[in-house]
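INFO  loader      accepted 1 record
INFO  loader      residues=762
INFO  predictor   begin
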Amino acid sequence: MKKFMITAISLLFCTVSMLAQTTIRGTVKSKEDNKAIAGVNILVEPLKTGTTTDSKGNYVLRNLPYGKFKVIFSHIGYKTKTITLKIQEEKTEVINVYLERKPVLLEEVKVTASLTEHLLKDIPMPVGVVTEKSIQSLPYFSPSDAMDKLPGVNLMRDGIWGTAVSVRGISKQNLVYLIDGDRIETATNHAGGLSLIDMFDVKQIEIIKGGISSLYGSGATGGVINIKTKVPGFSERLSVSGSTASGYNSVNKNTSANVRLFASDKFWYAKLNGSVRNAGDAVTASGTELNSKFKDKSISGLIGLKLSGNVNAQLKYQNFIARDVGIPGGLPFLGPASVRYKLAYRELMEGKLNLSNLSKKLNKLTLKYYRQIIKREVELIPNPNAVVSPGATHTTDGLFLQSNFILSKNQLLIAGLDLWQRRYDGHRTKEIKPLKRIIEDKPVAPSVFRNIGLFAQDEFMLAKNKLNLTISGRYDFIIVKSDETKNPQYIINNGVKIIPPPNPDASFKATEETNKSFSGSLGLLYRMNKNSDLTFNAAYTFRSPSLEERFQYINLGASVYLGNPSLQPEKGLFFDLGIRINTNNLRFKGSVFLNNFSDLVIDDVVIPDSVFKKQNVGKARYYGFDADAEYRIFGGSSAYLNVSYVSDKDLNSNEYLPQIPPLNGKIGLKWNFEKFANLNLEASFAGNQNNVAPGEKTTPGYVVYNLSFDFYPVKFGLLKIYTGFGVQNIFNRSYRNHLTSYRGMFHEEPGRNIFAKVRILW
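INFO  predictor   done
INFO  writer      dumping tokens
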């Protein structure tokens, strides 16, 4: 892989050709008061490149090629402005732009869900976005909490710290999780993969609600979640800025603090970020949820370098460590059992090279390598006489190459190579104190999952730009290997180690399996008029079974769960039809969807009630709708509603599938007190869930009320101070989220939570 990287980088540099050196610079200001506007999104069409304004409203667009382009300036609270550039010679030009204030309902955010940067309104896929503004205004404990605000995305709890999400009824291994585009590969039987991310450092969360294996490969049968962290940009002169932030949540006495430093000039930028959190046991309306405390800390940094006019490099590092994290329980942790993460750890290292405007057709080329390591050490005390200590290390290496070609002003082609592998190495120790016995085994065989993917996507603008057609396809070749594994590994009796133990169970022989899969998708966006459009998406998807599904050996005493190395990929057909309306006073976005699966991996019965083995036997169908609407009452005040519904069937047994959310949504009022504060009063609701799988419990409906205030910033010298507070579950209602029946035990949701946040920018 190292030789491949060196060769690829060398070839990329050799392809760099002579470019036009046209530079456009200027300042973006408010038309009303002539004040500079920071954070303005600037997008150059059809190049799909751009920048943002710095803290003083300045921007620079460098090395633009010859041609005619549209430059789009957009910012929340201002009217979008478009200017036309015609570049015929090398020059430097100053263009100052003035934006007019306008309370808007549609946030003109840029997203990269389709592997290229677009405005959200310009992509046909069903995408939900959690913006930085939303993240900063509420006391989210993890990205999962933040995504719960979107229709079709539902929170799954395993305590306060450990959380996951369901996207249109689909969860766990059927979703691809990314941090800055890098895969988060880890075990899915415990929630927590999304909890190993510093919320203070999250800029935006993008969720594709539906199958998109054609771009993201194996696992993206139910959706993709990409969590993007904050990145500074280059500036015209030396710039140094920073921030501190802190928060408090009464529901578990959680205190948190963050410090961030940005620095930049024309040729480099850098970021250093650090956070700490410490929380006790959470309180519900009925009492304290024991063993739900946690403490964690994180540090991250990055450096960006301008190597030449059109070549940028970036190095990134992230480290997150959690200790003494309580796992409240559920199957197989019953009764008085005490379970905790002694250690949960994530480390990411990434190097990226961006080359832009290589030729008239080749607009951008990106090469990236990353390594992400996730470790977990668990302590389970089922009773005073025993201690079980499972642990594992999941190491993911990835190499990603993508090229963007502008074939014409109405056609953009992207193509690339996606190589990644996940390596698993785990153990489990059982100590039986009265017998003075220690047993070591392997819950999953030491194994590796290698994936080579080739992908391409073609975007067309047709019918005088009224129709956007997107076609994508991907071919994946997957190799899965495992070592021979016998359980138990050894036994220690009264201090005497026995290797090999007598009569070990031959769990798995050394194996090697291959999967070859093709996936494809079609997306259409038809603009009926300037205020409304229709979207349609169809996709053929796949998921190659995980290492745990292939090689697990879980012996719970009364029951045994076995993997199957010969499993074949799951296959899916996904359809989505949507409508979007955006006027001065109304924003509406709604979709109906259908997701069919075949060859689902399930636990098939080998011996009733005692031995289960993974098999490809399942067929399932998910269908439903989600909608999101907001209506401006006057000025910056509006009322909003989102709602979602999903139904399902196991097509083999004609039974319902487990952990499907009921009809649910949110209704609220955003009230703007001019130059003082923004108020948000919200009711979160869910209906009864009576359509449950065999053995699954029903849950009643509920309504929970929340209130939050965000005050306008106060300037104090060079400081800008933001404050906010609020109350969640105002009436301290006792209720249960149907999806929080994690591992078979229901947990009551947190009770009343009074929170406060302070953020200081300088």
